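stuck on this chain:
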Amino acid sequence: MIKETKNLAADSDENWPSPKHLRAHAWSPMLALSYNLTQNGRLHLRWAQAVRFPTIYEATTTNSSWADAYSQEFDLKPERSTNWEIGYTYNFAPRFKRLRHGDIRLTYYNSVIKNAIELSSERNLQQYDKRLTSGIELQSRFDSGKWFASLAANYRLKQQTCDKATVFNYDLYINRIPVCVDGGFGATRFHQSRQPKYSINLDIGTRRFNEKLELGLRGTYHSKAENKQQDKLAKSGLARIYEATGRPYHWRSALVLDVYGRYNFGKNLSMNFSVSNLTNRYYLDPMSNVPIPAPGRAVTVGFTGKF
């Protein structure tokens, strides 16, 4: 018996349909308030929403697979983030006569991204219910002219990805896996780019020769990125969620030192020089989502002129 075969060439329009035109719009409101508690102390509050529509790549590869080169269906929703922060700023420069600048700022921040778009370990697009981020940030500085310094620290309280469907698929009957997991689900960008628990940045410098010469030392410290929730789930026999989605990277702590300098020959000519990664430390950059070592010791010299 001979079956009739379909002429693929004749039905090219059906096999390769033209993409649909997509248009959308959304509001991104923002509100900022500040209140002077004292002459040198200020309380601030900021609330903002933002919308990110899927890119062309995300929109055209939503339902693609090895069997279907393109699917004209569009299931992705726009990402909508809600960010708010509250903080206190204090200017202590008036208390010290020799200080040009001196202030400290403490801020609590919170971010929720709904319909978060992510790539799975198989490079397939997925959309999770939401992504949560919160933490405490400290910023301070002082500058007396001859000496100056700044200190910044970030303590991350929460870095989680939440999705009911994903956790339900990995524990259908007992539902022992929490809806929100630290970082993300295995070998995804959210989990592999999970930032350290805390980071500290310190700059110290001096100005000499009527402030023509400026020398400085910069130190950056990142704590190790560990996932206690993942270890707890593994001990409870629930490691399958990570075995199936890919084990994420575990960053070690790192301390990186840089030195820099600047000399002004006049109003129109200056020289800059720096030595980054002074100790030639071998480490993986915890702010990267790929396991590539950061650059080693590097010396840079440059001149700047105005004409």
